[in-house]
From TrEMBL:
Listed name of the protein: Kinesin-like protein
Subcellular location field: Cytoplasm, Cytoskeleton
Pfam family, one: Arm
Low complexity: bias regions: 28-48
InterPro entries, sorted: ARM-like, ARM-type_fold, Armadillo, KIF11-like, Kinesin_motor_CS, Kinesin_motor_dom, Kinesin_motor_dom_sf, P-loop_NTPase
PROSITE patterns found in the cross-reference section: ARM_REPEAT, KINESIN_MOTOR_1, KINESIN_MOTOR_2
Record organism: Eucalyptus grandis
Keywords in alphabetical order: ATP-binding, Coiled coil, Cytoplasm, Cytoskeleton, Microtubule, Motor protein, Nucleotide-binding, Repeat
Gene3D superfamilies assigned to the protein according to its UniProt record, in alphabetical order: Kinesin motor domain (3.40.850.10), Leucine-rich Repeat Variant (1.25.10.10)
Family: Belongs to the TRAFAC class myosin-kinesin ATPase superfamily. Kinesin family. Ungrouped subfamily.
Length: 927
């Protein structure tokens, strides 16, 4: 049998460890391999919600896919972790009858891909999956989301695995192996996968062959040839490939042919009867589908023998075989041995199933945690799945669960298995505690952003400063230049004017001189007086001219001075601008300094937080070490550790989860020690102890031990003696958990529990305390034997008294109590054990019931609707119900209730009561 890839056995291919993209034919595989969410819920696009798009990956050689080593050399395997979907089975008839009054243990939020698991009456845990299928999900959608992407990758030459895991009777075989002969819509994954495979391949060239096996009590049998009942697993030591050479391999030609093989296999499949499911499959069924395809791809151009060049060369298309293997595994039921009621041989079976499933769980843990050793050899199942799970195989896991609160333990462990398969670090259990690590990470991120922002700002400031500087220098230089130009111009002008005036004066002097000389030659000595007169006139003219010149010079000088003043002003303004730019720069520098200071402060804070974180880790280690040194020493500290450990079981033991942690707690400290602390003097210690006991009491497996060790008495005593409301709240919560068991209910009643709970309720102010008390009384209300006593001790009145707080969670518990009580009464009436009117009516509960019958909170409404239906079963209540307005509500329920079982019950109640019928006739009403 062909096998490809490495997984469980290979360190190279841890599941999801390879996130790097694989290049093939130049295309990145990473995008193709990631399974992205799609917002569309339509079935045509359903497959895209588990994967993004089909693989477009082409490998040039199948050998490269064939083994871990080959693929590793390629530089990576196929990334993508195990995809996990959860599917809820619809209620079966038995559950409809038995659990009608109890809330389902799970609530699905398919739109958020989340599942809420009810921990107890008041608490839920939330888990995220890759897909969440409600009880209404069609087989088609389940196939398209879970298996189709795997089938597509098998057709591309990969290994692919689809597995179903879950408690017996939760629908694994329905999901995977349903043939759907009468109703094609019911066809399961195996049938639909083969339809897709046959539709995609070419029957002439390609081939599909199947083996169908079962693994039962560590023996592999051939379901297609039952005499072949000890098939051995062969592992290729080099590649890690797994093959089963002894298994029958049948070639499939058409769908009919395949259905016959499945039918044959089913006929041979071993099915042992267990108490839980008469059709329960006690073996693991494994269908292996080998797909061999021929892919034509171009070989390199081959030169002709004579070495001629490409235009004379011939191009060959060589066939390439691509082999993919699809493994569909219908695992045996995962229920706990003690619950299945198995005995003798069946017990051995259950143990062997548990062994192989727990080996599978360990391998998944190891893969998820990337641990160096994957214990693949621990069971045949894990050896067989070695090359099919993780690594180069694309794997989808469907975990199937039932709705019944009675199987909460199994449902929880199935969910945890699914969560681990999604990888431990992907476990999305919501917690509401302070996470210093993430705070520190957030601060670091913020700091990084701030630093980047500062750097950006600083660069902008520097650039701005440089710009202003350059601008001012340019302005100064420009002003200097202008000033020098103006000065030069003035100087030249003055010089020119001066030279001109000198020239003029000289010319005038020369003219005067000549005139004078001429006159001297012609004028006689007698003219002395008259000549003297002319000469003095000409001197006066000269002085006048010179004066004018001087005035002109003065004006020019003034103008030049003004010009100078102007330039000086301009220079001054430039200096002012420079000063303002400098002050701007200073301001920016200051800003920068402030930012740096802020940054330093933040860094300081981070350092403090980191040191706090270190301190916390140190404290946690210290406490763990203290706990490891057994329960001796200081009580309060030990209890802190215990409380933390009980509250966070997966922290302390990721492998086996909560149960292991609680078991460890018992082992290490001892229940008696914990219980003794309920009476400790120190109030803190007492509170811690009650919390620890309450957490322990939430685990069904611990409840009997707690009661046997006197824990119930101690808790009741605390209600009696303590004034502390925290203690009341937690103790009442623990009592409510213990009150889920019939024997404990009687013990609680015998110890005056109802009176204590009633008093606690009367004194409580906190709605959470009331919720716990109401939860405890509601559980007691479901016990047929305790009805009269519960009422006479004031249980009903106490319940009704608590509605005063109006908190919807409290009202829901009250409504549940009333529904439980009414159901027990209607059972007693049917058996003739009760004749009078309902004690609920006697205690005036009817008005509240009618008032809340259509409460908008579904948790309240559903219980009240059931209570009304139960009350209506007993004819003696009919008159009160009519006068109290309950008939209208019953009619409404029979028409509008969203739950069919409740609608039917209401209709039956109406039609079986002559009083109701008469009243309806009188009112001319139909129902
Ligand atoms: N989604 C569903 N819708 C309707 N019926 C279902 C669904 N799932 C399961 N059932 C019914 O519940 C019953 C138990 O289912 P199934 O046999 O598939 O459980 P199982 O998990 O395979 O049990 P086992 O582990 O014992 O093999 C069957 O009658 C099946 O038809």
């Amino acid at each position: 049998m062909a096998a490809a890839g490495a997984a469980f056995g290979s360190n190279t291919y841890r599941n999801g460890a390879h996130r790097s993209s694989v290049k093939a034919d130049g295309k990145s595989l990473a995008a193709n391999q990631s399974f992205k969410s799609s917002s569309s819920a339509s079935s045509s696009s359903a497959s895209s919600s588990f994967k993004s798009r089909s693989l477009q990956f082409r490998k040039s050689s199948p050998a490269a896919l064939g083994g871990a080593n080959g693929a590793a050399k390629d530089g990576g395997g196929v990334p993508g972790r195990v995809r996990v979907a959860v599917r809820l089975r619809p209620r079966n008839a038995e559950e409809l009858a038995a659990d009608a009054d109890f809330a389902d243990c799970v609530e699905l939020q398919p739109e958020l891909k989340r599942l809420k698991l009810r921990k107890n009456n008041w608490d839920t845990d939330t888990y995220a999956f890759d897909e969440v299928f409600t009880e209404f999900a069609s087989q088609k959608r389940v196939y398209e989301v879970v298996a189709k992407p795997v089938v597509e990758s098998v057709l591309e030459g990969y290994n692919g695995t689809v597995m179903a895991y879950g408690q017996t009777g939760t629908g694994k075989t329905y999901t995977l192996g349903k043939l759907g002969e009468e109703d094609t819509a019911a066809r399961g994954i195996m049938v639909r996968a083969m339809e897709d495979i046959l539709g995609d391949i070419s029957l002439e060239a390609d081939s599909v062959s199947v083996s169908y096996l079962q693994l039962y009590m560590e023996t592999i049998q051939d379901l297609l040839n039952p005499s072949n009942d000890n098939i051995s697993i062969v592992e290729d030591p080099k590649t890690g490939d797994v093959s089963l050479p002894g298994a029958t391999l049948v070639e499939v030609r058409d769908q009919q042919n395949f259905l016959e093989l499945l039918r044959l296999g089913e006929a041979h499949r071993f099915a042992a009867n267990t108490k839980l499911n008469t059709e329960s499959s006690r073996s693991h069924a494994i269908l292996m589908v080998n797909v061999k395809r021929y892919v034509k791809e171009k070989d390199p151009v081959l030169p002709m023998e004579n070495g001629s060049n490409s235009h004379s060369a011939k191009t060959f298309k060589a066939p390439i075989i691509r082999k993919g293997k699809l493994v569909v595994v219908d695992l045996a039921g995962s229920e706990r041995i003690d619950k299945s009621g198995s005995e003798g041989h069946t017990l051995e079976e259950a143990k062997s199933i548990n062994l192989s499933l727990s080996a599978l769980g360990k391998c998944i843990n190891a893969l998820a945690e990337n641990s160096a050793h994957v214990p693949v050899r621990d069971s045949k199942l894990t050896r067989l799945l070695r090359d099919s799970f993780g690594g180069t195989a694309r794997t989808s896991l469907v975990i199937t669960i039932g709705p019944s609160p009675r199987h909460r333990g199994e449902t929880m462990s199935t969910i945890m298995f699914g969560q681990r398969a999604m990888k431990v670090e992907n476990m999305l259990k919501l917690k509401e505690e302070f996470d210093y690590k993430s705070l520190s990470r957030r601060l670091e991120l913020q700091l990084d952003k701030l630093i980047a922002e500062h750097e950006r700002q600083q660069k902008a400031f520097d650039d701005e400063i440089e710009r202003i500087h350059a601008e001012s220098e340019m302005q100064i230089a420009e002003t200097d230049r202008k000033y020098a130009d103006a000065l030069e111009k003035e100087r030249i002008k003055y010089q020119k004017e001066y030279m001109e005036s000198i020239k003029k004066i000289e010319e005038q002097l020369v003219g005067d001189q000549q005139k004078h000389d001429n006159d001297s030659a012609t004028v006689s000595h007698n003219d002395y007086y008259s000549n003297g007169e002319v000469s003095s006139i000409s001197a006066l003219d000269e002085v006048a001219d010179l004066k004018k010149l001087l005035e002109k010079e003065t004006i020019l000088k003034k103008a030049a001075e003004e010009e100078l003043t102007n330039h000086k002003r301009q220079l001054y303004q430039s200096k002012l601008m420079e000063a303002s730019a400098t002050s701007e720069i200073l301001k920016l520098r200051k800003l920068l300094e402030d930012e740096s200071r802020q940054k330093q402060k933040l860094e300081g804070e981070i350092a403090i937080l980191q040191s706090q974180l270190l301190q916390l880790s140190f404290d946690a280690d210290e406490r763990r070490r203290q706990l490891d040194r057994t329960g001796s020493g200081n009580d309060s500290n030990d209890l802190d550790c215990l409380t933390a450990q009980v509250k966070n079981p997966q922290l302390s033991d990721s492998e086996n989860g909560e149960k292991a942690s609680v078991a460890k707690l018992f082992e290490q400290v001892g229940l008696h020690k914990i219980l003794s602390l309920l009476e400790a003097d120190d109030a803190d210690v007492r509170i811690h102890a009650v919390k620890v006991v309450a957490n322990l009491a939430a685990e069904e497996a611990n409840q009997q031990k707690i009661v046997e060790a006197g824990g119930l008495m101690s808790l009741l005593n605390l209600l009696r003696s303590s004034d502390d409301e925290t203690i009341h709240r937690v103790a009442a919560g623990a009592i409510a958990n213990l009150a889920m068991n019939e024997t404990n209910q009687e013990l609680i009643m015998a110890q005056g529990g109802i009176r204590l709970l009633s008093t606690t309720a009367a004194n409580a102010g906190d709605p959470q305390t009331l919720r716990m008390v109401a939860g405890a009384i509601a559980n007691l209300c479901g016990n047929d034997k305790l009805q009269t006593m519960l009422r006479s001790e004031g249980g009903i009145k106490a319940l009704l008294g608590m509605v005063r707080c109006g908190h919807p969670d409290v009202l829901a518990q009250v409504a549940r109590g009333i529904a439980n009580f009414a159901k027990c009464e209607s059972r007693a009436s049917a058996q003739g054990a009760k004749t009078g009117r309902s004690l609920l009516i006697e205690d005036s509960a009817l008005p509240w019931i009618v008032q809340n019958a259509n409460n908008e909170a579904s948790a309240i409404r559903r219980h009240i609707e059931l209570a009304l239906c139960h009350l209506a079963q007993h004819e003696v209540n009919a008159k009160d119900m009519i006068s109290g307005g309950a008939l209208w509500e019953l009619v409404r329920i029979s028409r509008d209730c969203s739950r069919e079982d409740i609608r039917t019950l209401a209709r039956r109640s109406l039609s079986s009561s002559s009083t109701f019928k008469a009243e309806l006739r009188r009112l001319r009403m139909d129902y």
